[in-house]
Recover the amino acids of this structure.
């Protein structure tokens, strides 16, 4: 797995990132690999009227749990719109920025993955570095082959169109 050091403000929906995070009921932080759905979702607390910011994502793997299976991962990418090659990294094909309503609509489509859906406090997550996964090894080979075929077909269409 190749990792690229990045910053939280550069993380976009669809990126697969790794970072360390300590949950509220734990004493130790663990490395987590997450498919980002919304890197900055804002929520106004009813009691204090203060705005809390969260990172919403599908947790693919942690240092202490089993990773998500290949079949579930393949279904996850189908429901999020497929794969995309962006900034040298393979990622899910999502919009650049999602509103709160769009995030709720997308998580509705991901109903079978509620077990893996997580929200992380952005304030706590920013305390540790975030790494962009350049080639996440657990993506099924079938999915990557379909993705490669789509890229080749799009290049062939461009070559035919411009006569190269």
């Amino acid at each position: 797995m190749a990792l690229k050091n990045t910053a939280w403000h550069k993380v976009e929906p669809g990126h697969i990132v790794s970072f360390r995070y300590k949950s509220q009921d734990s004493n130790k932080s663990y490395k987590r690999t997450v498919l980002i759905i919304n890197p900055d979702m804002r929520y106004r607390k009813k009691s204090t009227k203060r705005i809390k910011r969260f990172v919403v994502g599908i947790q693919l793997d942690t240092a202490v749990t089993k990773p998500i299976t290949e079949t579930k991962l393949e279904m996850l990418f189908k429901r999020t719109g497929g794969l995309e090659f962006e900034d040298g990294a393979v990622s899910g094909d999502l919009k650049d920025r999602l509103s709160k309503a769009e995030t709720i609509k997308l998580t509705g489509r991901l109903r079978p993955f509620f077990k893996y859906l997580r929200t992380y406090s952005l304030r706590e997550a920013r305390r540790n570095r975030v790494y962009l996964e350049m080639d996440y090894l657990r993506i099924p080979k079938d999915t990557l082959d379909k993705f490669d075929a789509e890229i080749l077909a799009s290049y062939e269409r461009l070559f035919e169109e411009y006569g190269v």
